[in-house]
Design a protein that fits this description.
Blueprint lengths: L6 E5 L3 H12 L3 E5 L17 E4 L1 H9 L3 H4 L4 E3 L1 E5 L5 E5 L8 E5 H14 L3 E4 L2 E7 L4 E6 L5 E5 L3 E3 L6 H9 L3 E16 L13 E6 L4 E6 L5 E8 L12 H11 L10 H7 L2 E10 L2 E2 L3 E3 L2 H4 L8 H23 L4 H31 L5 H16 L7 H6 L5 H19 L10 H11 L8
Parallel strand pairs: 1-2, 1-12, 2-8, 5-14, 12-19
Antiparallel strand pairs: 3-7, 4-7, 5-6, 9-10, 10-11, 13-16, 13-17, 14-15, 15-16, 18-19
This protein binds flavin-adenine dinucleotide.
Length: about 450
């Protein structure tokens, strides 16, 4: 607990901002948050993007540290693996892990955000100014320009230190990069998404397996579905924005129905509101944001999507943002532990150093995982390599952990998961080159390759 009564200003009370507020208040800071939207607990507003999200180990640890898991656990639906639906309507379950605890969880974005907002306010140290959009940050004057939603009036507010948790179109990022910009890349994926819904059955049950993340992989595009607490599924269609098969070309009732009949015929009975959902729900854009620096002197820092928006195919954007928030909190803790003094320029610079490399790594792995999800999951060789990865994890647990598991079930840095993953993939390719089943694997060769190429792995540092 620090005793210096400092106030920290956050822009954005989304998932990362509201959790960060709890972590900072627990350390004795006063927190002022300016949030563009109205209070989602009192207004029926959409939570923004995806209705539900996959929460994994890295996102759970910061929630544990914030003391929120007793509230969050009841709203989680475990997903044990992917259920792959082929063109003929057959289902093939592919487990994500090997141990009972190796699951990810589907959670409502809105409900999780509300829990964090309630917890932040309950500390008595956090004030949230809803309906205040940050338009500009003046670092010299240490002043925010804010537009009030009610009457569009512009006001200013002073700040001492500001953290941008204002998402992928961050105003704080813009302000930092007007001053010092080494990198400011917004890389469009060229694919977009649309949310649809599978309602519960007439008896109120799940219509497809409740404990799977469902995928209909079709090569250049795919549909996924994640379970909700009310036995419905949020369904997301991902496909190119323009081109032959795309949101641009599939743009009237006939083409939508034909497209689903041809590619997802088993889904049609599950999607009674297909046409309404398709035409009324927005088409979301998908992009990766990579920027540097993430901070400005001892004044400003970026965290969450503001620093590193990633495409959603590894289900890690929020998880990574929660890790950022915990990293900042722990960096503050160790600064207090060392000499009791907070040198903010050092704290911000350390968080930037720790997290930027990891933000970049998960951004790259998320793009790769799109191809895995929409295509590779149908490939026999991919399935063989996955099965072998589990075997190698069993036989050489000190060295080998499948990449998906490193990212989703453990907390070693993303950058390490990425670099180990590349070496492991080479090993898996070599061992499966000329074989078609696990029985044919040469485990003596596997052991030599693993010991030669991999260090021991530290999964939860
Ligand atoms: C389709 C889809 C599926 C996804 N699935 C997953 C998943 O399964 N797992 C996962 O971990 N991640 C997932 N993500 C990523 C996840 O949604 C983001 O990483 C996460 O929301 C980032 O949280 P954030 O608080 O940084 O940003 P946001 O959630 O975008 O919150 C930013 C907040 O700032 C406010 N704001 C914005 N601009 C201003 C301003 N100028 N002034 C004041 N307030 C402002 C916004 O209103 C908002 O409340 C998915 C994303 C998409 C698009």
């Amino acid at each position: 607990m620090n005793n210096n009564n400092e106030t920290i200003t956050l822009i954005g009370a989304g998932l990362v901002g509201s959790l960060l507020a709890v972590l900072l208040a627990k350390r004795g800071f006063k927190v002022e948050i300016y949030e563009r939207r109205p209070d989602m607990r009192r207004n029926d507003i959409s939570a923004g993007r995806s209705i539900n999200l996959a929460l994994a180990n890295r996102g759970i640890e910061p929630l544990v540290q914030a003391g929120l898991m007793d509230k969050v656990s009841p709203i989680l639906t475990p997903m044990k693996g992917r259920m792959v639906h082929d063109l003929e309507g057959n289902e093939n379950f592919q487990s994500y892990g090997q141990k009972p605890e190796e699951v990810i969880y589907s959670v409502s974005r809105g409900d999780l955000n509300k829990i964090c907002l309630d917890a932040a306010e309950a500390t008595g140290l956090v004030t949230i100014h809803f309906d205040h959009k940050c338009e500009f940050v003046d670092f010299d004057r240490k002043e925010l320009s804010l537009k009030k939603h009610q009457d569009d009036s512009l006001i200013t507010a002073p700040f001492e230190r500001v953290i941008g948790t204002d998402g992928s179109a961050s105003a704080v990022r813009e302000a930092i990069h007007q001053i010092s910009s080494k990198q400011h890349d917004i890389l469009q994926l060229g694919h977009s998404y649309k949310e649809l819904r599978i309602p519960p059955s007439e008896s109120g049950d799940f219509q497809i397996d409740a404990n799977s993340l469902h995928i209909w992989p079709r090569g250049g595009y795919m549909v996924i579905a994640l379970p909700n607490e009310d036995a419905s599924f949020t369904v997301t269609l991902f496909m190119p924005t323009s081109g032959e098969v795309s949101f641009d070309s599939i743009n009237d009732k006939t083409s939508v129905i034909d497209f689903f009949k041809q590619n997802f015929s088993d889904m049609i009975p599950l999607l009674p509101d297909l046409e309404v959902d398709y035409f009324e729900n927005p088409t979301g854009n998908l992009a990766t944001v990579k920027c540097s620096p993430w901070h400005h002197q001892d004044i400003a820092l970026l965290l969450g999507d503001a620093a590193h928006a990633v495409v959603p195919f590894h289900g890690q954007g929020m998880n990574c943002g929660f890790e950022d928030a915990l990293d900042l909190a722990q960096t503050i803790d160790s600064a207090i532990g060392k000499n009791g003094k907070l040198v903010w320029s050092e704290i911000f610079s350390q968080v930037d150093d720790n997290r930027k490399v990891n933000g970049d790594a998960i951004a790259d792995m998320a793009i790769e995982n799109y191809i895995t999800m929409r295509d590779s999951v149908r490939d026999e060789k991919f399935l063989l390599r996955n099965a072998l990865a589990f075997e190698l994890e069993n036989k050489f647990p000190e060295y080998f952990c499948p990449r998906y598991s490193m990212v989703m079930f453990h907390r070693l840095p993303y950058s390490e998961a990425k670099s180990r993953g590349i070496i492991q993939e080479e090993i898996l390719q070599l061992l499966t080159e000329n074989i078609s089943s696990l029985n044919e694997v040469d485990y003596t060769a596997a052991e030599s390759l693993i010991i030669e190429k991999l260090n021991k792995v530290k999964l939860n540092p």
